[in-house]
Amino acid sequence: MSEIGPIVHKYNRKTVQQKNSNGRKNMFKQSSQKEVSTKLMKGLLDLIILQFLSTEPMHGYQVITKIRKTFGVYFGPSTIYPLLGTLEKKGYVGSTWNMDFERPRKVYKLTADGQSMLNYTEDSLSLICRKITIAGNLEIQPTVSVLSAKTRNNLALEIH
Q: Three-class SS of residue 105?
């Protein structure tokens, strides 16, 4: 049993085995995965809300529920409603009151400016991901080249 095995067993934490680029197995705690997901969600919450509203208008509770169902992360009303208000002040979402429910609900809808911001942000995130992938591949991938006889001779002379 590996050294980490008894630690995981002792504290009864769930772990996920993943293979890294070298083919070795890493133990990555699910609690760590949840932490990473939550941090990413917090940073991208406005984008996520804009994306949800691009598919259909929603009231705040629908946004809260959809985030929880989609990502397994709970953000309460004290997080979502102020963010919706900020997005509305910036002109990215508009709202109307819907009186068809038992109690009135403020329904949010993506505006043209919101769609533009969503497109820009998605493009920016895509570019960042591509750059991360390229940077990772540059560090991992060995460089192979064929040397001409002249270059080999010049290198041999420099080494001696």
A: strand
